[in-house]
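Key result, reporting period 2: structure in, sequence out.
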C-alpha cells in the first residue's frame, strides 16, 4: 500500500523499549513529536498511544518538548516521571499506564505487550495502517494477524540494531528510528 494523505493511521509506542534502546545504543533520548511527525508522513492520525510503566522511586525520567531525559523536577512541583508523562501527552500521545511489579527477591516486571496487541486489534477496524513502535519480536504473531487476518498494513519503527530481524521481515515497512532526522537528541 502506498501512503496517501487520506490513510487512517494508528501508532502504538512501547516507551520502555524506545527509552532503553536510545539510552544504551546512542546515549540519547527520543524526540516523540518528531518521531510521530515522520511516521505519519502527512497521513491522518486516528490514535497515538504510548505504553508506560509507573516506576516512581525506581528511577525518574523527564521529558521536555517531547524529549525524554533523566533529571530532577521537584522545583516545579512535578515528579520527573510526572513531567515525562505530561510531555508525552503534549507530544500528542494518549497514555496507557501500569505500575511496575516488584516481586519478592527483587525481580521487576514491566510489560505492555498484551495491552498493545489488544488495543491495536480493537482499533484496527477504523484504521488503514497500524504502526507498532517497538523492536520486540513477541509482536510477530500480532503483525501476521493484523496483515493477513484483518487486511491492515502494518509498519514497524524501532532501532535497527536491537529490533528483531524477523519482525522487520514480516512488517509491510520497517523504519529505523536512528535514520529519522531529529528523532534522537544526544544527552
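The corresponding designed sequence is given below.
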Amino acid at each position: 500500500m502506498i501512503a496517501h494523505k487520506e490513510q487512517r493511521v494508528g501508532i502504538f509506542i512501547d516507551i520502555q523499549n524506545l527509552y532503553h534502546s536510545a539510552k544504551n545504543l546512542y546515549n540519547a533520548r527520543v524526540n516523540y513529536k518528531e518521531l510521530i511527525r515522520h511516521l505519519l508522513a502527512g497521513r491522518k492520525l486516528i490514535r497515538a498511544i504510548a505504553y508506560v510503566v509507573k516506576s516512581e522511586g525506581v528511577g525518574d525520567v523527564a521529558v521536555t518538548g517531547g524529549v525524554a531525559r533523566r533529571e530532577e523536577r521537584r522545583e516545579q512541583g512535578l515528579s520527573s516521571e510526572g513531567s515525562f508523562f505530561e510531555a508525552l501527552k503534549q507530544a500528542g500521545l494518549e497514555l496507557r499506564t501500569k505500575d511496575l511489579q516488584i516481586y519478592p527477591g527483587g525481580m521487576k516486571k514491566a510489560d505492555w505487550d498484551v495491552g498493545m496487541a489488544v488495543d491495536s486489534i480493537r482499533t484496527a477496524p477504523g484504521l488503514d495502517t497500524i504502526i507498532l513502535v517497538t523492536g520486540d519480536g513477541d509482536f510477530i504473531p500480532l503483525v501476521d494477524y493484523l496483515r493477513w487476518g484483518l487486511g491492515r498494513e502494518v509498519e514497524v519503527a524501532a532501532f535497527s540494531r536491537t529490533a528483531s530481524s524477523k519482525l522487520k521481515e514480516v512488517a509491510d515497512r520497517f523504519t529505523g528510528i536512528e535514520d529519522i532526522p531529529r528523532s534522537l537528541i544526544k544527552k
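The chain has six helices and twelve strands. Residues 57-77 have pLDDT under 50 and may be disordered. This case is discussed further under Risks and Mitigation.
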